[in-house]
Amino acid sequence: MPVDAEVLAAEAGRRSARDAAALFAEATPADAVHALQSLNPAVAQDILAELPDEERAAILANAAPPQRAQWLRNDRYAEDTIGRLMEPPTAVFRPEQTIRETIEQVRELVKTTLVTYGFVVDGNGRMEGIITMRDLLLSPHDVALSEVMLRNPFYLTPDMELPEAMKQVVRRHFPVYPVCEQDGTLIGQVRGQAMFEEQAYEISAQAGRMVGVDKEERLSTPWPLSLRFRHPWLQLNLLTAFIAAAVVGMFQETIDRIVILAAFLPVLAGQSGNTGCQALAVALRGLTLGELQPGRERALVMKEALLGLLNGALVGVTAGIGMYVAARMQSHPAALLLGFIVFCAMIMSCVVSGLAGALIPLTLRRLGADPATASSIFLTTATDVASMGLFLSLATLLIR
Q1: Contact between residue 151 and residue 128 where contact means Cβ atoms under 8 Å apart
Q2: Neighbouring residues of 322: CB distance < 8 A, sequence distance ≥ 6
Q3: pTM, whole model, 2 decimals?
C-alpha cells in the first residue's frame, strides 16, 4: 500500500538514513520527492545515498529540475559541510529589475515556496546584493533593485564545515543564508533552522561515538544491525581490558603479599577515569564548537595536566586517609606508608588521566578520524593502566 508523503517524512525523520531508505520502497516517486523536500536537506541527502540506484533515479526524475540539480550538487560535498544543507535559491532576481516587476514575481513564487530574501545576481550568476521584503514593500515601484539592494552581503561557502559556519552565524540570526562559491557565484541557500538541527544532531551523536555507538543507530534500528554496529567496539574494549589486567598480573606477588592493595585498585581507577572524562568532555566541546584554534592545543594540555595535579592532590588526601584507616584496622605495620602511596599514586594517575583526556581527541583529529570515535574506550585503557600500574609500582618499590 502506498505511503502518504507526510507520514513518510515524519517516519523517516525518526529513523537512521539506512532504515528510512527502506520506507521509500513503498512510496511513489512523487510522494518520495515531497517527503524528501520536507526533511532537513542533510537527512534527505543521506537517504538518497542509501537508496538503490533505480529508486534514486526514479525519484530524481520526478523532482523539479532545480531541486534535482541541487540534490546532485549537494552530493559532491563532504558530510558536515554547508554544501550538504543547501536548498535551491528560488527568489533570484537581476539588478535591473524594477520593484514592481520583482513584486509580481514574488507573488507567483510564494504560491509554492517560502520566500524570505531575494538574491540579486548579475549575468554570470554572481551575487551582487540582497533585497528584503521590507524594501520591496516601502520602495517606489519604478526603482531598480540595484538602487535599494543591500550590497556586499554575508554568505557561506559550500565546503565550510558546520562548526565553523555556526561560529559565523551565531550572532547574525538570519533565517536564510545564501551559499556562494569563492568567486561569489550563488549556488544555493541554507536555512538557519536546518543548520541548528544538524548541529544539535551531531552533538547528540557525540556521546554515542565515544563508546562505539554508530551515529546511524536509533531506537528503531533492528537489533541485528545494532549488534553489527556495536560488537566490534566491544571486542576492542575487551582487548584493552586484557591490557589493564596484564598490568595488574605483573604485580600479583605484591598483591598476594599486601592484600589490602586490591581493595583500593577500583578507587584509583574510578577517580582517574572521572578526571580523564572531564578533560575529554572539555576537549571535545572545544573541537565541536570550533573554540580550539590551531596553536592552542599546548595550552589545553597544560591546563588539564595542572587540573589533574590539583584535583589529584585534593582527592589523594582523602583517599590516603582512607587507606591509612583501613590499614590500621587490619593492624598493618606500614599503614602510614600505604596512605602516602595512595596519595602519590592518585596525584600521578590524575595527571596522566588529564593529559590523556586532552591528547586522545587531538590525536584522533590529527590522524583524520572523528575525535569522539571510541575516545572513551581509549581513555579507559589509559587511565586503568596508569592508575593501577603506578599504584602497584609504588607499593612494590617502597614496601619490602
Answers
A1: yes
A2: 264, 267, 342
A3: 0.62
